[in-house]
Amino acid sequence: MSMFSTGILVLTSPLHTLPFRIAPVLSSAAQVVERTLYVHLHPGLNLGAGGHVRPVFIPPVVDLPGLISRLYSNAADVCGHLDVRVLLTNFRAQPVMPQAGLDAASNPFPSPQTLSHSPEVVLTDFPLQDPGQSSVVAQCLQRYAGHCYVCKPDLSSVILHPRLEQVKDEDQKGRDTKPIETYGDVVVGGTFDRLHGAHKTLLNICCLLANRRFVIGVCDQELLKNKVLRELIEPFALRLEKLQEFLNDVKPSLQYDMVPLSDPFGPSVTDPQLQCIVVSEETRRGGEAVNRKRVQNGLSELVLYSIPLIKDAHHTDIEEEKISSSSLRARLLGTLLTSPQPRPAFSQVPYVIGLAGGSGSGKSSIAQRLEGLGAVWINADQIGHGTYLPGSAAYHKILQEFGPDILNEDKTIDRQALGRKVFGNKKRLKALTDIVWPEIALQVKERIHQAKQEGARVCVIDAAVLLEAGWTDMVHEVWVTIIPEEEAVRRIVERDHVSKEDALRRLQNQWSNARLVEHANVVLCTLWESDVTQRQVLKAWNLLQERICQKKEETGLPS
Ligand SMILES: CC(=O)SCCNC(=O)CCNC(=O)[C@H](O)C(C)(C)COP(=O)(O)OP(=O)(O)OC[C@H]1O[C@@H](n2cnc3c(N)ncnc32)[C@H](O)[C@@H]1OP(=O)(O)O
């Protein structure tokens, strides 16, 4: 079957049956669509009668948020690679004002809505009565989709035949078909990093509850400080752009106000027009705190609308049970975040990884594990130490530059004493690295050459300040290890028996984690148990082997 990048799934099953059917329907849709799957709900739509079928407004009922949540959680389970978006333009709670005009009163799509990705295929769960009906249904479906949304010319149609369970009467018990209470202005807050099913559920429900305006507080700066792997959080502008795109698709009629949040409250405690705040089970107490502040500020309390957390069926032992952005960030570790610069003039064998990372970030433990998997480990720190041996060229230059008080009694250089002179003093550190870096670089290149002679396929240059030294032209890819500063300080103090202040001074001479990540092709983190690090390294190594093989196929080199 052909694959399409973007599709729109028109669900015609009655709403109460969907929770039991949505998983097989989504997994059949995922056989046809590979990137974005829009979901349009029109329960009871009869596509088998021929002629024109029109969209109508559907009143949102109390059951609907649960259904939306189920839909996104099933999507995460059965088609996690798809960007699923539930569209709500045809849901409306309030009666329409007579002055809005007859068409607007009864037709949710007076003109077709433009989506951020135009559908190339329309799919449906409509049950065919007999196979002969399929061309009538397909035509009707295409016309219906084209009436509602701007689709690609030559829109294809697919009638899905998932294996569906029969819905028994007792499955319908507890259904709540009362209309949902809606509000003029609704507010929500969050980081919204790498929009996932739980974010989308929250945003969809807010869109359902809001009639006029939806205020979204987006965490920035201070509020991100304590987040796990915060260096991998998408930039603020990108998070905003993705939110805007999603919301414009879901319900373009709403006014969206996106506000950077630098404290946990933002406009929720000052905006008099707000009526409702949407929270999760986890953030309910935050919602209650908002209301206390509003009362102090002389404002009315907000209705707290709480949604359940969505479970992540694929969570690992170090991840949270709920779908969370931190788990998604953890899954990025070891993967290729940005493609390396092509280096056509640079020999492909051995493939050279530059492994950089702040002091105490576990770089050497990663390099050692890579060595265990078959890489040649080139330890630049160790090579650097070798350049200090009495009689070497660097030894004399260092003595001239720093004077005899950095010598031990046996005339060898006391590296700790030298370290005290240079860490914390940028000028002095530069004087040292101007002497030793060219010497270390030369020896690293010799080791790579030697590894090549010995038939090595991968070399890892373990060099703390590889990026600061501008050694990227010596490597095919840059991998970096990151660790929160507090943990780095703790490790340095314990390992090198230096004071906390000295450890901090050392770190201040190095690039921040965020800056390292900006220049990294692959990021690794040794914050957790040793087997977690090993799994990360294995993942990075296996993906690297795939890239190397792919490059060989492209260039026609023997593997
Ligand atoms: C481009 C490269 O990365 S080459 C490898 C790094 N070496 C250099 O840059 C040479 C200059 N540095 C040195 O010669 C030594 O670090 C000295 C003499 C200053 C101190 O020596 P020692 O006390 O034995 O410490 P050691 O060499 O183990 O370095 C301690 C930490 O300082 C950090 N460090 C080393 N050099 C630098 C530097 N130029 N700038 C900032 N931090 C540095 C390292 O991250 C290392 O921590 P890590 O092992 O957890 O990564």
From TrEMBL:
Which Gene Ontology BP terms does the record give?
coenzyme A biosynthetic process
* Position of the signal peptide: none
The enzyme's E.C. designation: 2.7.1.24, 2.7.7.3
Q: What class of enzyme is it?
A: transferase
Main localization category: cytoplasm
Name the chemical reaction catalysed here: (R)-4'-phosphopantetheine + ATP + H(+) = 3'-dephospho-CoA + diphosphate; 3'-dephospho-CoA + ATP = ADP + CoA + H(+)
Recite the UniProt keywords alphabetically.
ATP-binding, Coenzyme A biosynthesis, Cytoplasm, Kinase, Mitochondrion, Multifunctional enzyme, Nucleotide-binding, Nucleotidyltransferase, Phosphoprotein, Transferase
Q: Does the keyword Glycoprotein apply?
A: no
Q: Where does this protein reside within or beyond the cell?
A: Cytoplasm; Mitochondrion matrix
InterPro entries, alphabetically? Cyt_trans-like, Depp_CoAkinase, P-loop_NTPase, Rossmann-like_a/b/a_fold
Give the Gene Ontology MF terms in alphabetical order.
ATP binding; dephospho-CoA kinase activity; pantetheine-phosphate adenylyltransferase activity
Transmembrane stretches, by residue range?
Answer: none
User: Tell me, what does this protein do in biology?
Assistant: Bifunctional enzyme that catalyzes the fourth and fifth sequential steps of CoA biosynthetic pathway. The fourth reaction is catalyzed by the phosphopantetheine adenylyltransferase, coded by the coaD domain; the fifth reaction is catalyzed by the dephospho-CoA kinase, coded by the coaE domain. May act as a point of CoA biosynthesis regulation.
The annotated subunit structure for this chain is:
Monomer.
Q: By its UniProt entry, which NCBIfam families does this protein fall under?
A: dephospho-CoA kinase
* Family of this protein: In the central section; belongs to the eukaryotic CoaD family.
Q: What is this protein called?
A: Bifunctional coenzyme A synthase
